[in-house]
Amino acid sequence: MAQQQYRPPYDFGLGGVAIGNEFEFATDEQAEETLSAAWDAGVRYFDVAPWYGLGLAERRMGRFLARKPRDEFVLSSKVGKLLHASRDHRGREYFPFSPSPNTPHFDYTADGVLRSIEDSLQRMGLDRLDVVFVHDLSPDNTYLPADWEALWPVAEKGAFPALTRLRDEGVIDGWGMGVNCPQPILRCLEVADSDIHLLASQYSLIDHATAVEQVFPKARAAGVSFVVGSALNAGFLGGAPRYNYGPDNTVIADDKRETLATLKAVAATHGVDLVAAALQFSKAPDVVSVLTVGTAKPLNLLKDHAALQAKIPAAFWDDLRDRGIIHPDAATPAS
Description:
By secondary structure, this protein is of the alpha/beta class. 39% of the residues lie in helices and 15% in strands. The protein contains twelve helices and ten strands. It has helices at residues 28-40, 56-65, 91-94, 110-124, 148-157, 159-168, 182-191, 209-222, 254-270, 274-283, 298-307, 314-322; strands spanning 12-15, 45-47, 74-79, 81-85, 102-106, 131-135, 174-179, 196-200, 225-229, 288-294. Strands 1-2-3-6-7-8-9-10 form an eight-stranded parallel barrel, surrounded by six helices. It is globular, with a radius of gyration of 19 Å.
């Protein structure tokens, strides 16, 4: 097994999707209150991206974090999308609840990476990022200007070496992919010297087999770990009428609804809170460094934080495994 790459020192974090008004409108005051609640609860890992609200989440998160001691938290953001402001911007096409004046432009070159990091730091008013993820270079991204595989050589020759150089120079601590599909992570593990990847929408109670069978074994061999996002599948496991992300995420497949119904029934039988079980399950594997949750509501953040401490009987996990909901080789908190 390879030497362990960089792992953040904190295992629970706040993601910036909701603070960027992805799903509904949130005020600056709500964002501030959510960030303050997270900080007071001990959260010290924060993940954001230019994409979230097209700059809105970075401005809100930066405004809060700029008032905190920089050595007391870990911050990750993303590269691959540059934001251009104009009077005829297309921001509402991507984020109808964000007032951003920006239009995103995809750029996975070395120069684009450096520009993206500089722009993010200026929006946030901070002097450095700790972790950088190459964002959404993935087969599920319908906004890409070309097929993801056609754009891959640009990133392999541009973004990846640039980020490796920044890490080796001590400018950042680590880098990896931030994607919703396994293919880019698996390919990156083969061709680049990455450290940590954002596994979004890929390791939940409903969807984790590919990670267990393919992604995790290769990551262990490379000494690479993961930030797990969307353990609730964008709120689906918590009761939201959507599954994961994208313009069609309210069209939910019957098998997902059936699995959710089974999960609810088993949780009720064992007296288990399903959100607590989902969060603890996604945090359990040895290759998971950080579990992040995304919300712009302080109470939800505090509930998620408390859910990680909830007692869940081993019989609950055994029941799910017997029903085929949990993969035979998937880690559980009881194991």
